[in-house]
Design goal:
45% of the residues lie in helices and 15% in strands. The chain is built from 17 helices and twelve strands. Helix 4 crosses helix 17 and helix 16 crosses helix 17. The longest helix has 26 residues.
Length: 461
Amino acid sequence: MMQNLPFEPEFEQAYKELASTLENSTLFQKKPEYRKALQVVSVPERVIQFRVVWEDDKGQVQINRGYRVQFNSALGPYKGGLRFHPTVNLSILKFLGFEQIFKNALTGLNMGGGKGGSDFDPKGKTDNEIRRFCVSFMTELCKHIGADTDVPAGDIGVTGREVGFMFGQYKKIRNQWEGVLTGKGGSWGGSLIRPEATGYGVVYYVEHMIKHASGGKESFAGKRVAISGSGNVAQYAALKVIELGGSVVSLSDSQGALVLNGEEGSFTVEEINTIAEIKVQRKQISELATEAAFSSKFKYIPGARPWTNIAGRIDVALPSATQNEVSGDEAKALIAAGCKFLAEGSNMGSTQEAIDVFEAHRDANPGAAAIWYAPGKAANAGGVAVSGLEMAQNSARVNWSREEVDSRLKKIMEDCFNNGLATAKEYVTPAEGVLPSLVAGSNIAGFTKVAEAMKEHGDWW
Ligand code: NDP
């Protein structure tokens, strides 16, 4: 039990989601000592909090808060992204770091879990302001990270540009070129496929869900796929869906949703590329929505999420913007629209109410509307997996081809799906015709791997 905790709603939500699936399985009956491991693993090994002072273009002093949560290093150096967004606080970074521990375990690579960032808002800032912020942020963070200690990457608000500025500052202060950050530029140590990895990985994961559910008969071909977000994860998920013959029927951003006008058609590759271009300039999709090419084909709904605003059937939903972006009612609406597969590109994309709805709809007997639900810690593990492959390439001073990295990513996503499925079958016994719970299976598989390593390190006994 968590006691005497500060008010950390997002972290508590992530903790309870994991703990409840362990409790509702046979895990603690078979291994009651794991209750102690759960207590230990839910406290970060270290939390670093610091002041970031930087100068804006007017010469004014600006102050932000910087953080790094070094949650767990049982399986390897702390690994997890940096988020720059005004909503960032310790509760959000603890939830993200906690999820990251088990996600990284599921990749099968040697990475611990961590997360960091700042309440800095990159929107509306010039490139020079962003550079000065990144330099100041790394001036402090560089004391606490390193290729064998803690290897951050990007997340919301942190792209290759910010990674570059931070890497440059690390190198200057430490006088060391090392793979201390992932998501680096291709010419200076970045891995091919890293930008695409999370979005592609989600789609590879869902391919296995579809294949398994249909006994190998179905694929993405002909599927109508609702996606939220329009950043890194959403863009590459959308491009891969189109490549595999599916239709993308929605995208969104923090200001609103862009959905197809009718029940036919799909976003095209060109339209997604146009959206990607405006996102590099930190603009909103509302600016595109009024252009003739977009307004004739799409409907823009300010302040809305896509889920309840799509005309016609939805086969697959991929929340790919931010946490808690699918409510209980939206989960019900998705199932009513025919959705059979939901996989989170975002971390904790679904509220607990939505997860409860999905888990209550696993009855695949004739006449019942069943849905396969994949939590972010399994479905979006492709990003950190390729970050792990970037670390391996940096250590060996080699660069793998696109094909090599992509095939490793595909294998990791396949293993991730099969591991969650097999573990669910081992620890949760559903009634006849009820689908295995991928959320329980993934949580248990990730948790037991970390718990065992911690036990061998003497972290609990
Ligand atoms: P980006 O910054 O590239 O894109 C984020 C997208 O989500 C944008 O469309 C943004 O809109 C929207 N968004 C951000 N905050 C909110 C909000 N509060 N409400 C509604 N929409 C919002 O980030 P990523 O694509 O990298 O990340 C998306 C999600 O995927 C996050 O949950 C992240 O943690 C997760 N993830 C990312 C990985 C990666 O490799 N990048 C790996 C694994 C998970 P706007 O443009 O208006 O800001």
